[in-house]
Amino acid sequence: MIYLYYTDKFQGYNFGPEHPLNPIRLALAYELIEESGLLDSQTMQIRPSPASEEDLHMVHTLEYIESVRLELPDLAFGLGSDDTPVFPGIFEASRIIAGGSIDAARRMLREDCSTFNLGGGLHHAFPTQAAGFCVFNDVALGICALKKRFSRILYLDIDGHHGDGVQQIFYEDPGVLTFSIHESGHYLFPGTGFVDEMGAGPGLGFSVNVPMPMYAGDQDYLLAFEEVVPKLFEWFRPQVVVAQLGVDTHYSDPLTSLNVTLTGYTQMVRRIIELTNKYACGRLLALGGGGYSLEVVPVAWTSVLHLMRNEPLPEYLPPCWVELFSNMVGGEPLTLPDMEMKPGKETQKRITSELSGTLQELKRLQSAIHPEIF
């Protein structure tokens, strides 16, 4: 069974009309999932309840939780910045998203299943700090819930931005192996996620980062993924996998400078599912995340659910949904396969050289700690 977490209340997580994180992307994704006939005996929709304050305290301090509850700007806690402004209802909306990931994780404690929280993936929040559109770190909260049963949890983050909050929270924890592949912090927020960020104390070597060159595309991403991720699975032998599946790596995304297509994205997701089935009995907690092109996000996350169901990706979108999209957004959504945006020869030469150096340095540093991985 696959449990899909979605509620119309996710629309309340809304930073305003000028903010790039438009919650309509979640509604469009859910509508496409529904129109595609994916809510059936194999996939059950769950409407999440708000996380309790006790649950939030698994990751966040009481002082920070109280500051969010007040719904007033407080830059000491990252609230009221341009990225994460305060809005009426921010506390309740943030609790509902967190509640989805916590409940999804707890459902996986009771039964061997897969779950997908469309609204989840807010990986930039810290225990005492909002950041990067993220208030409560639902990813880390879900992982904390999973730790009640599982001692080896693998976190995979393919969002265009580094999963800095999740990495920091589990930086000294050898029971949580965090992997993030993202546009290099030399070019992009949050400016972290370099290969020498490897964990600390007992968690040394359990943080793995692959910063990607600007304009990296499908070929580059799939090469880096295959060089590293299968080896992490084989070495760590995770009991459960948490995957943040942000799609802001897409070439049309307004906040990144990458060239990944929907085809490349779904190939990575397919490999995550295959490896999870092989090593972790298919236990996958999938989360949404970034993605700011409305033409891309609904198709990407509906494709994720098709892959979780072990179904081929559809060649056509339901006409009634395309009409809905046009009425709500204007224009037309992208469909699979989309056109790859190939860089010029000199740019590709730079990308190849930079990525090769990154992978060599990653393997050199990791081999000094865990030589059995590579």
Task: Describe this protein's structure.
By secondary structure, this protein is of the alpha/beta class. It has one domain: Arginase, Chain A. Helix content is 38%, strand content 11%. It is built from eleven helices and eight strands. Strands 2-1-3-8-7-4-5-6 form an eight-stranded parallel beta sheet, sandwiched between helices. Strand 1, helix 1 and strand 2 form a beta-alpha-beta unit. The radius of gyration is 19 Å and the shape is globular. The two termini are 35 Å apart.
Write the layout of secondary structure elements.
Layout: E1 2-5, H1 24-35, E2 43-46, H2 53-56, H3 62-70, H4 90-110, E3 114-117, H5 138-146, E4 153-157, H6 164-169, E5 176-183, E6 207-212, H7 218-236, E7 240-244, H8 262-279, E8 284-287, H9 297-308, H10 319-328, H11 345-367
